[in-house]
């Protein structure tokens, strides 16, 4: 009886604690400005000495101007995360700006550590995400409107208009991470074996190699 009660108590305790473990851990001091040069490996970054903290650790101007979208996808993501703003360390938030040329696409991808919410600055987009039951949830969004992409689910944004578009994204993680589905599968190092991809996509090796060639990073 005692063992059963203890076991049930542990299950409830874990269930109650799980939401707190779903995002970045809470901070234990006012600020913990990231010090990527410390060499100490922790879940996040070690803290810079308080005496060395300046206003520059909490400032980033990179989202104030449109990004260059003259690339294959016709889009550019400019991140404002802990790697750009050291003061975000332990705060559990970050942002990005996504610019789209006419016809531009932010291809299907996931953020393994964060939910994303986008706010349309200008232009219009067709956006959507896929649930684990393979249902597409999609919407056409306009300036001033928002849309949410749940943590870990495949999602995309596409500008089908003839004018540029831009959004600001907010995340509940200092470093949400991004995995582009196509690039992850076809340009990894070492490469995913061809026999895995041919069977998964039900195509031949020739088609797989064509996709690899198209997605391979451009040599400078």
CA(first)-CA(last) distance: 69 Å
Q: Please, what is the average pLDDT?
A: 90
SSE class? alpha+beta
Q: How many strand segments?
A: 10
Structural overview:
By secondary structure, the protein is of the alpha+beta class. The protein is built from 4 helices and 10 strands. It has helices at 2-21, 181-186, 194-201, 205-215, and strands spanning 75-80, 94-100, 105-110, 116-122, 125-130, 136-141, 146-149, 155-158, 165-171, 179-180. The N and C termini lie far apart (69 Å). The model is unreliable at 1-5 and 8-21 (pLDDT under 50).
Compile the SSE list and pairings:
Blueprint: H1 2-21, E1 75-80, E2 94-100, E3 105-110, E4 116-122, E5 125-130, E6 136-141, E7 146-149, E8 155-158, E9 165-171, E10 179-180, H2 181-186, H3 194-201, H4 205-215
What are the main properties of this structure?
5-stranded antiparallel sheet, 25% strand, 220 residues, disordered N terminus, alpha+beta, single chain
């Amino acid at each position: 009886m005692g063992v059963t009660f203890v076991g049930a108590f542990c299950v409830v305790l874990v269930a109650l604690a799980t939401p707190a473990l779903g995002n970045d851990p809470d901070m234990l001091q006012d600020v913990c400005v990231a010090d990527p040069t410390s060499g100490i490996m922790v879940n996040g970054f070690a803290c810079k000495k308080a005496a060395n903290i300046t206003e520059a650790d909490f400032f980033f101007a990179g989202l104030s101007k449109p990004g260059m979208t003259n690339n294959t996808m016709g889009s550019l993501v400019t991140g404002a995360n802990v790697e750009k703003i050291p003061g975000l360390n332990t705060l559990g938030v970050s942002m990005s700006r996504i610019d789209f040329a006419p016809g531009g696409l932010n291809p299907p991808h996931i953020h393994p550590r964060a939910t994303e919410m986008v706010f349309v600055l200008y232009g219009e987009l067709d956006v959507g995400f896929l649930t684990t039951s393979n249902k597409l949830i999609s919407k056409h969004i306009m300036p001033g409107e928002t849309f949410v992409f749940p943590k870990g689910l495949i999602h995309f944004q596409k500008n089908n208009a003839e004018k540029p578009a831009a959004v600001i994204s907010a995340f509940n993680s200092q470093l949400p991470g991004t995995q582009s589905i196509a690039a992850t599968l076809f340009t990894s190092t070492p490469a995913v074996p061809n026999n895995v991809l041919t069977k998964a996509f039900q195509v031949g090796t020739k088609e797989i190699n064509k996709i690899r060639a198209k997605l391979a990073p451009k040599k400078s």
